[in-house]
Amino acid sequence: MSDEAMNKFIDVWVDPGLQLVDPEHRTHVKEYKKFMEERFFKWGKQNEIDGYFLNPGMEPGTVRYAYNQLKYKNGDVLVVTYPKSGTTWVTRIVQNILYRHDLKLLELAIGVSQFYSYLEFGPVSKYEVMENIKLPRRFFGTHLPEALVNSKKVMQSGGKIIYVMRNPKDRAVSWYNFVQSLPYRKHKSLEDVFPKNERKQRSFVKDGEGYLESLREWYKHKDDENFKVVVFEELRKNPITVIQNIATFLGEKLTDEELMDIVEMTSFAAMKKQAESSGTQQEGGMQIFRKGKAGAWKDHLTVAQSELVDRKVKEILGHTDIKFTYD
Ligand code: A3P
Predict the structure, then answer these.
(1) Which residue is closest in CA terms to ligand 1's atom 12?
(2) 136-149 per-position pLDDT tens digit
(3) Which of 71-80, 119-128, 161-170 has the lowest mean pLDDT?
(4) Domains of the chain, earliest start first
(5) Largest separation between any pair of C-alpha atoms in the chain
(6) Which atom of ligand 1 is nearest to the CA of 174?
């Protein structure tokens, strides 16, 4: 990746958030930029923690800090997903719910979403920002496996966890296409991200495991009081009801007008447009908004590939009540 492309990436993804953070808590700006250059863009060997693989920019020390030292507060919200399951969408919904009364807070929250709020991303010093951030209710995000997140601490502190799940066929297609737009790696074919082969993705799982194992472990919390499962396909089909349910889970009472505003502001078209105007949806960056549909896998997967996913779902999740919606 050229220096010019790298600087452009930092300009649109990292700088806007940094600019909004209180100046006294921006002491590590240089360190963060150096970190991005060395650990995100010029990253070599994949990081590993307790046998789980991490993506570039995601650091074992930062994961440990979040597990052992980060103090969660009553009202904190943690959005958990396996990549490409609707992280950005549900995070934006949560932000719109929490900060609907104050556009400046909403702007700050969106600005820090990508590189500060992820439990595993960045240098440990970034926690200075998240620990002091002037948000009445903080939010965090993570793609980490259940074993590496102190979910007990989150929930016992009065924090809430939202787990977003998506059908594995669309998720695989989404990941494959997303990775082709990343600065640091490409998959050779769609096969690389299939259950049989997900070890090649090696994101947030142990060798040989993939999305389905990650989901299986998180899903054990489904009946916990401070834990809610949100389904991508349900959110697509019925955003009004699902967004209302998320607000209720978070203890926030929306007026009808607020609810409809949030539905509108978090629609695929509105979010894509916002990303285009902020520059994050550019070539060579991380293009998150692709199709935003359910069932798009039908244009990409062969019958044999689709059947393979079905078999894996049965094998790994057959004992649960999970029933994926594939369109
Ligand atoms: P596709 O690649 O299938 O289009 P994540 O945020 O976890 O990386 O997930 C990205 C996926 O969510 C992409 O799926 C993206 O288009 C979709 N997405 C993001 N915002 C969305 C929205 N507001 N409505 C529908 N889908 C959305």
Answers:
(1) 86
(2) 999 999 999 999 99
(3) 119-128
(4) 3-317 (3.40.50.300)
(5) 56
(6) 2
